[in-house]
Amino acid sequence: PSQIIRIFEFVNKPLFMKRKHFLLISALVAWAFSLALILSPGLFVSGVPAQNVLMSQTTGAYLFGIGIINLFASRSPWSSAVRAIMLGNITVHLLGIGANVFAYLNGYDNLMLLLQAMIIHIIFLIGFCYYTFKKSTHDMSTQKEKIASNLPDAL
Fold it and tell me: For residues 115, 62, 123 and 35, what is the CA-based torsion angle, rounded to 10 degrees?
């Protein structure tokens, strides 16, 4: 456990933006890629059956939805729900990196596209890890949850 804590010690260092700005940027990037996948799937898949084009467009729709979720999370104070959204984004980017590695190992020939996707996934993975595991965020959320649990229920 102490090694894990040391790995994430950098997490307490301030970045140049707040979590809400990072989530807003992630939403905008998700929407940009989703619109490209929906409107021009040929940019990502070429010379493939119509089923792959449909899958590309469906992936774009899911990505648009992730952007919407991140937009609403950007406006929300830290909570267990926002933490779940952040962890979901971490999972998306870890799986995206895994899918890119798998594609490369199986002979996917558009290496420039894979490299660009890897860079985007890595940047967002670092950002989501930063804002999810930031010590001050945990302290603040723990304090708020303790306060909320001690308040009487509303009438």
Answer: 70
CA–CA separation, 79 vs 97, rounded Å?
Answer: 27
The separation between the first and the last C-alpha atoms of the chain, rounded to the nearest angstrom, is: 43
Cβ neighbors of 109 (< 8 A, separation 6 or more) are none
Contact 134, 148 (CB under 8 A): no
Distance (Å, rounded) from C-alpha 122 to C-alpha 87? 15
Contact 78, 140 (CB under 8 A): yes
Residue type, 154: A
Sequential pLDDT tens for the chain (155 residues)? 555 555 555 555 555 689 999 999 999 999 999 999 999 887 777 666 777 788 889 999 999 999 999 999 999 999 999 999 999 999 999 999 999 999 999 988 788 888 999 999 999 999 999 999 986 655 555 555 555 555 555 54
Rounded to two decimals, the pTM is 0.75
How many degrees, rounded to 5, is the angle at CA 29 between CA 24 and CA 32?
Answer: 125
Distance CA 98, CA 71 (A): 25
